[in-house]
Structure formats: structure tokens, C-alpha cells
Amino acid sequence: MPVFEVKNGCFYYKGKPFIKTTAYGSGNYLISLPDEYIEDPARNLYLRAGFTAAEFWARWREIEPYDGIWDLSSLKNLLEKARRMSIGVFIHFDPTPPQWMSEKYGWYMITETGRRVLIPYMGTVPHDENYFRKLEEYVKRIIEVVKEYDDVVIDYWLCGEKWALVPEFTSTERGIEDASYDERTVSEFREWLKEQFSLEELGERWNNDPNTYGSWEEVYPPVSLKPEDFKGRKLSKWKTARWDWYRFKQYLYVKVWKTFCDIVYKYDPYRPISLEVNMDLPGFIGHGRWYKVCSVAKNAHAGIQDFEATFERAFYYIAVSRGSSEPPHQVNEMSGFQDYKWCIRHAWFIQAMGGTGMTFWDFKSDYWGLVTGQSWRYNKKEKVQFKESYLAVQKLNSMFRKIMDILGASPPLEPNIGVLLLDENSFHESGVAVAPAMRYLSLLLWKGHGSETAIATEDHLDYGRVDKFKLIIAPHIKYISRSHAEKLKEYVEKGGVLLVGPFAGEFDEKGDPYSKVPCEPLSEILGLEAEIDLDKEVLAHLARVREYLPIRLRTGSWILETIPPWLEGHLWSVLRRSGLNLDPNAREGWDFLARYLKAKYREAYVAEDFEALRKGDVLKCIPVQKIALEKAEGICVCGEAPVLTVNKYGNGYVIYSAGVFSKESLEKILDSALSLAGLTPYVKVQSPIKQGVIWGVRRAPNGFILIVIEAADKQQEIEIELNVSRMGFKKCKVVDLFGKKKIELDYSKPKFAAQMDLCEVKVYHIVLR
To answer: Are 276 and 159 in contact (CB under 8 A)?
Structure first.
């Protein structure tokens, strides 16, 4: 039997449920710690903190410092010490080649302005036969040591900003300079194009001229700074060429990291691999999509990043991971610069939303560390000072260990709700899709649906995984391919419920406008036609961003805490101009925008009863799109113009919004969509304080796990109501796993009350009978 394995969406170590808790830098610290201190909690800070695992960062430049010279002594040192401490070790692979190797094999990248840069740059890796051969040797050497310590090593990890092709080189006055125009990449790009187009078809596709190219050697990728290719040839359909170059980068990215995962699997098919997905954020780096790797790589699972200051933003990361792969989803990063209460709440919040464990960044350093110090390594002359976060981690480790057998064996709920973010929109409108998606994610979270919500992507449509969702929310699909629109049509035909935001189906994936808006077959399932009004689109984006940015840039957010010094002045200058600081004299622009948008809201009236909406209800919205109904029913009108419609298509329904609704009004619309999909929360928790508690549900072998977290810094009495129909019970026993209190309930009155102290976490085991 494998020592460390995945069973039923959970981690098991030596046959028992396992919650991996660790911190960055832990391996360096333990390796440097004198042997005589290893088993002494008074001297071994890591042992005192109670972590269950330690990290070994297998930097290639240290593992193979010279050609043919291998040094794995540090790994063996750590494994020996971990065995004595009765903790596990996970291997953090670093597949960035050493500099001497890049020089030997000529691994350079070329920027669009002709600069020649030695790899690695920004974590870039090459992708030729020599690299894959050397990569396999690197992995093999490490796993040979792993097999000697089979009882100690738990799993593998690949994270950090690792790029098969560097996403950008540097910023210029005209924009961001692109890279990866080296001979090897260009040649592979041509081969990729050949599989899809003839030379004549490519000329027509990029330049409206089938005679553009006389041979494939004349084909070069487009650049970013002007509408031409790398050799200066004008491209009349430059946006299409850029889309193809972008798709190729994604293809190569997936190819490289799938190859890496397959190599690991070849030498160790049992231990899982946790992949980082913090780069999968729409509007960030385009072609780096870990979720695409998770879809196809063997034994790969999406990890969770949590370095945000709000539950809503943290939930976004969790939802991305949960949509990327099957569970479990290990926490890859949590920020140790936060305070005690943040650490407690967010660690448990992740468990409540379907993740597992925690990995704090990092254990011991003078920046993000849980304890202060000058480096990760032990220094006998150093006076270490504990941080609040260190005390929180001690508490968390103690709590996890106490209920590991039950909590560790509880898989997350299967996602029933998908919030759709398409790559087409990420490419053409960087970041625009995030704000409308966050509006729905925030509502779902605080309504108790967080633990059954995931981010859906084009991969769900392409690979037929979209049918697992009972409700798909598509807040912004302005750019959508005809094939993806067809997949949404099939989803609705089969009985799915689709909630669509304004401006859907205006452009295809290449950026070309459709002759009909929304495009076919979206217009067919929506039952309406719409007009394009770019001024209204800008207005809608302003309204959503005004609501979202205070969440995104709240003090404590990682973007503010980790900004490099050379950019800090620019960032704070922008924030001051936006009014996003505590200086009342700098808020004029921000407040003006709020007043401007407030004046744009209108009253809309519900025309007919529809699920949670009642005839005569007043909703507030900014109308942003003029629509003409064909088969759809207008269920809400502003003036005489419909702003909310519903259309039955096949066995399913499509709801369309032609306005930006206030948060309260949007909640009623969402309630209607949830009702139409037959979805009510597994559990409702009532608090006397708005957003006073947050909660989530997991499955257990004989019932469910309910995690409730006090979120308002106040003592409060809450009421918990179990959903009999969704949980499926006549009687149940509710066990407070920390308080040991037991409550007997039946279907006629599935409620009970509880007292919550400040920052308290309650974990209930709901045993069905």
C-alpha cells in the first residue's frame, strides 16, 4: 500500500487521514538545526509549532551545481531528521535549470525588440529535447532518494512562477514587450500552425490574403507593440494572429508541465502532485494556466493560494482551484504577515470551502515569517521573536491534530454551481471579467453556497464537465467562440440553468464582431436580440469596479504587502488618485464616481411572479443594454424596456440581465436562479450581526462536517438550521467536535442554537440516522 495516497478526495498517510500543515523555509531551518536539538521542543521551533510536515525545496542549481555533479545530502539530512520528529516531508520541485546548463545547451530567449536573454529569466524554462532529458534525470535522482525514505516522504509540489514561455519581458513606453521569439519556439509555433491551417488558410486568417506566404519559413509570430510580425511584416488581422500566438503559448505551457508531471508519475505513480494555481487569475498572465495542466496531467491536483485580506478574495482562489481538478486541494500559500485572528479564520475558512491543510509563507525570515529572523536557517546567535501568527499556527496545528481522523476523512461537496470565466475574455479584456464574477461569488459565499461553488472555465465546456453543474453563472462572456456557445446551448437543452450577464456574445474568440448579437446559438437559447452600446459598457464596468476595488485593494492584501519597492510609489500614487487610502483630502475622485453612479440607478419593476421575485417588486439597476424580446419573457422592466428576461429552452432555462443591478436586487435574481436549479443551502446559519459568521459543509462517511467561523469580532448567539431534503435524514446526531456536546435532531425541527465567542471556530459532525 502506498505510504501517502489520495482516497475519496482526501489525503491518507500510512493508512490514516492526514492534514498536511507546513511552512515555507522549514526544510532549510531543520537541515541547519543541530542534531541534538531535533527532538527538543524547547530548541526546535518547528517541533514546538506542531507542524505535520516540512518542505524540501529541491532547487536544481543546488541539486546539480556542476555538470554531472549531484548533491542530495541536504535532502537525506532532512529526511533523517523528519523521521526522528515523526513528521512527513514533501518535495518542492524547482525545474528551472542551473545557469551552467543553459550556457551549455544555448538556452536563450529572444524578445520582440531583439534582445537575447539567457534562461532562466522570471522562472522561464526551455522546451527542447535536451531540457526534457535533463529534467527526467533531475526528477529520477530525487525520487531515488525518496524511495530510500518511503515512510517519510508524503507528496510532491510544483509551484512558483514557472513559465514554458516567459509571459512578458519588460514594460516600454508603448506597452509590454513580448518575448520567446527564439528559433526553437518559432519553429515549434510553425509546426503547431501546420496542424490546423494550410499556408493559404493562414494567410487569409492573418492578412486577408491567401498569397501572403510563399513557405512556412516566412511565417513568424506577431509582436505586441505594433500590428506586425517579428520580421516587420504588416498583419491586417493582427488580433487574430495574437490570439493564435496566445493559444500556442498555452499549448506549449501545458505540454511542458504535463511532461513534468508524467515524468514524476513514471518514477512514483502513487504520491500526488500539488500544482499552484495562483497564476490562473483572469487578467493576470495570459497563457500560464495551471488548471489546463491539472485537467490532463497524471495524479495532479490544484493547490489553493490564500494571501488575501478578505474572505471574498480568498474564496475566489479556492473556487479557481476547485474548478481546476478533483480534490484534495492542499493550501500552498498563506501569508504569515497577518494577525492571529486572520490566521485562525482563514485557515478554517479554507477547510470549510473544500480545501485542506495549510502552508504558511514562511516559517522563519525577516519578512513574511511566523517568527522573526535573518534567514530561514538556524542561527545560534539569533534571538528569535515570535509573531502573533506563530501563536495562531500553534493553535491551528493543535486543533487539526485533535480531529484529524474525522476532518481529514471528509471530502468536499461536489460543486453544483459554476461561475464561468472564459479565456477569450481574459485575452481580449484583461481583468474585466473579474469584477462581475466577484459580485456573484460574494453573494454565494455569504448565502451559504460557498462550499458547492467553483470557477468553471472553457475546459469544462471543451471536455464535457459542465454537465455536473446545476447552475452556471456567466457574468461576462462578451467574447465567446461559436463552439463554446454551442456547448452552453447543449447544457441548457439537457436541463441546466444558465444565468447570463449583459453584453454576451458580441465578439468571437479572435476579437471579430458577430453579425448578430448575441451570437448564434446564444441568441437562440436567450430568446432575444441585443444592441451594442460601448458607452453603456464602460458605465457598467465603472459600476462593478467601484464596488470591487475596495475589496481587492484592502490593506493587508498581498498586492499591497508584496509590491516591489521600485513600484510602490507608482501604486500608491494611483491609489491616492482613486481615493483608496485614509487621507480624506484624496477621496474626491472616488466619491465623485460613487455619486455619479448612484444617479444612474433607476427603479425597475417585476412584471410577473418568478421564483423569488414577486410581481410589483422594485429592483434597482443601471440599464446598460437595449434588448428586443423574441421568445424570452420580460420578467423585469425599467420604464417600458426589459432589463431581466427568462427563456425556457429544451429542459432548461436561461436568465438574461441587461442591467447592472444593486447588490440587494442582484441577490433576489440569484435567489430565483438558485430556486430554478433546485438549490438551497445545505445549512443556514442565522446571526444577529450582518456577515457575523461564515460557514461551509463537507461530507463525512456517515454524514456531514459543518464548520462555523465567527467573523465579526463579537460574541453572538447563532441559530443553525440543517436542510433535511438535501442532507437526507429523518434523525441525526450533531456532535461538537471541540466542545463534545451532542444534540439529537429530527426532520420536524432540524434547528439548534449555539454561542460563538470572538474568533471562535465550531466544527460539528452531523451523523445521519
So the answer is: yes
**What would the pLDDT profile of 242-276 be if each residue is shown by its tens digit?**
999 999 998 999 999 999 999 999 999 999 999 98
Whole-number Å distance between alpha carbons of 120 and 143: 24
Reported as a single tens digit per residue, the pLDDT across 214-228 is: 999 999 999 999 999
Structure-block grid coordinates of residue 542: 465603472
**For the residues of 291-350, what is the DSSP string, one character each?**
HHHHHHSTTEEE-EEE--SSHHHHHHHHHHHHHHSSSP-BEEEEETTS-HHHHHHHHHHH
Q: How far is CA 156 from the centre of its chain?
A: 19
Please check the confidence at residue 133 and state whether its pLDDT lies above 90: yes
Cβ(59)–Cβ(162) below 8 Å: no
Phi/psi at 93 (5° precision):
-70, 145
The pTM is what?
0.94
Q: State yes or no: pLDDT of 499 exceeds 50.
A: yes
Q: 499: which strand partners?
A: 473, 655
Cα–Cα dist 505/625, whole Å: 13
CA dist 447 and 673 (Å) reads 13
Q: 266, 315, 313: which is closest to 137 by C-alpha?
A: 266
Q: How many CB atoms lie within 10 A of CB 667?
A: 18
Describe the strand order of the beta sheet including 453-456 as a list of residue ranges: 453-456, 417-420, 471-474, 497-500, 652-657, 641-649, 633-638, 602-606, 618-623, 659-661
Cα–Cα distances (Å) from 673 to 64, 438, 646, in that order, read 56, 17, 10
Q: Which residue has the cell 498572465?
A: 285
Q: Is the dihedral angle over the CA atoms 75, 76, 81, 83 positive or is it negative? A: positive
Decide: 256 and 127 in contact? Cβ < 8 Å: yes
Relative to beta strand 88-94, strand 153-158 is parallel
Residues sharing a CB contact under 8 Å with residue 466, sequence separation 6 or more, in sequence order: 418, 456, 460, 472, 487, 488, 491, 496
